[in-house]
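Open question from group meeting: does this chain pack into something compact, or does most of it stay loose? Before anyone orders reagents, we agreed to write out a predicted structure and look at it together. Recording both the input and the output here so the notebook holds the full record.
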Amino acid sequence: MDNLTHSLFGLTLARTPLGRGGRGSTIALVLASNAPDIDIVATAGGSAKYLEWHRGPTHGLPGVIGLGLVVAAIGWLIDRKWGAPEPADRASFRRLWIVAMIGVACHVLMDLPTSYGTRPFSPFAWTWFAQDWEPIVDIYLLAILAAGLWFGRATDRTARVSSASAHSRNAVLALGLMMVNYGIRATAHHEAIARAHQVFGAQLPASCPNVTPESPFEHWPRNTEPTAAEGASRCLVEIAAMPDFLSPFRWRLIAHLSNAFEVRTVDLLTDTGRATSSDVRIVAIHYPNVWTPAVFQAAQSPVAQVFLGFSRFPAARSVVGADGAAIVRWNDLRFTSETVPSIRERAPNLFTATVQLDPAGKVVHERLGRQ
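Structure tokens returned:
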């Protein structure tokens, strides 16, 4: 999730019993709710280095323990300097550490239901996990958290109960509405996947024989062998539904085939899922994913290795010149527009990798995004 959502969630937690102990607990919860994103310092080494470490160890067990300890120390020092004058009214360091670890863990848990995903077992295992329920920025989640904090302030001025009780009541209400939001999105996601075969119709081939069984969480990179020729037999690897920024009932369906991707959008409130020949919306956007020898060669470059470890749906395209030189590009279809960019255009965002090979197959240039 975005850092504004994480911050508002930390402030909401501070209005629950976790926030007891004064200013130090509040500071610890807000800082801890954002602490895992300290991995942004990896950008000093370039885009590839950032992508390599993003949502890695800071989002795993070392992050929960280590960042919790650092945040607790900061909260403890601030509380001693500007906190309650009476030591009995301040949170102990042990309590701050526990509270901070809860804040860090909640950050990781909030990243998990997004289509971006996270790596909660790093550095022991670098597998990405996701649930695809939430976009990176959920405007409804932001509204729920912001409203809970705002009405909590208004309640302070009018409530007959204590301020602490008013805070806690509004925080619990906001957290309950958060769960409702997650429930609606989870249900809508399940329905979008269920309609996928009707939506795509005959465009979908049979499932691949080497597909791994379904698991409670989406995970990648997967051990799926890409098809190396246009004429090879197609099969279905998986179907995913990406959430929409505005509507929880609008989903971007991605059919991952062995040599291509088919993409189309479905609205659960308006689309019946039954395609007709007169319905222009049944035409899915086709993204080739043919792994030619040039693509396999380019995939060995350092930037490509980082990108392919991060990307969930890397669609490969390649152009080979008359002299044998080649340009290879991968686009992560989670973040692409509804049109296929030209291979000769500059990459539109960070979630694209481009590798240039000379006639001998040696990498002469590689980049992420607009580098």
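Observations to bring back to the group:
The longest helix spans residues 163-200.
Residues 3-185 form one domain.
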